[in-house]
């Protein structure tokens, strides 16, 4: 073998050298992508664990019940809240809560009941759609009288 190399061989060696740099760049990109995927996976795992942990805890507001609420302005409300055997009358508005009055809860207070007096939204929507179909499809609902 001679020490002289042809220009073709020099080009091949240069091409191999530049492709080696490309492989190093791709390896660096792969490591960065893997690190990013690991961080995202850790965030998702922590989020799932926090959701499970919060659902496993007992309800913090179990002794708190809103008795009634009345709007007295655009953003202000007067709220009566029961805490254990005490009723608090609170003024709520503009990011503030102010205690207006405190009294013992009456003995004949109403039992807590779920809001079952109004039908669920899905049922009301299906009834409205059925009523609309019964009226007939020949009238245009967007047409003004």
Give a quick summary of the entry.
This protein has helices at 7-56, 121-135, and strands at 64-71, 77-83, 86-93, 96-104. By secondary structure, the chain is α+β, with helices and mostly antiparallel strands. Among the domains are: 7-57; 64-104.
Structure description:
The chain has 145 residues and is of the alpha+beta class. Among the domains are: 7-57; 64-104. It has helices at 7-56, 121-135, and strands spanning 64-71, 77-83, 86-93, 96-104. A four-stranded antiparallel beta sheet has the order 1-2-3-4, with no helix packed on it. β1 and β2 (77-83) form a beta hairpin. The longest helix has 50 residues, at 7-56. The model has no long low-confidence stretch (mean pLDDT 78).
Q: Low-confidence parts lasting 5 or more residues at pLDDT below 50?
A: none
Number of helices: 2
In what order do the strands lie side by side in the largest sheet? 1-2-3-4
Total count of strands: 4
Helix content: 40-55%
Written as H for each helix and E for each strand, in order along the chain, the element string is: HEEEEH
- β content, as a range? 15-25%
The rounded Rg comes to 35 Å
Global mean pLDDT: 78
Terminal residue distance: 101 Å
Q: Given the C-alpha coordinates, what overall shape results?
A: elongated
The secondary structure category is alpha+beta
**Sheet with the most strands, sense and barrel status:** 4 strands, antiparallel
Family: Belongs to the FliO/MopB family.
Keywords: Bacterial flagellum, Cell membrane, Cell projection, Cilium, Flagellum, Membrane, Transmembrane, Transmembrane helix
Subcellular location: Cell membrane; Bacterial flagellum basal body
Main location: membrane
């Amino acid at each position: 073998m001679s020490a002289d190399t042809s220009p073709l061989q020099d080009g091949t060696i240069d091409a191999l050298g530049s492709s080696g740099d490309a492989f190093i760049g791709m390896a660096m990109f792969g490591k960065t992508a893997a690190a990013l995927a690991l961080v995202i996976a850790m965030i998702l795992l922590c989020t799932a664990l926090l959701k499970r942990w919060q659902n496993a805890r007992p309800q913090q507001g179990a002794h708190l019940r809103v008795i009634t609420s009345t709007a007295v302005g655009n953003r202000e409300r007067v709220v009566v809240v029961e805490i254990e055997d005490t009723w608090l009358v609170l003024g709520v508005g503009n990011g503030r809560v102010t205690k207006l009055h405190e009294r013992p809860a009456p003995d004949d207070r109403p039992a807590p009941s779920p809001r079952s007096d109004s039908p669920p939204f899905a049922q009301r929507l299906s009834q409205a759609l059925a009523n609309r179909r019964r009226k007939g499809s020949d009238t245009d609902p967007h047409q003004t009288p």
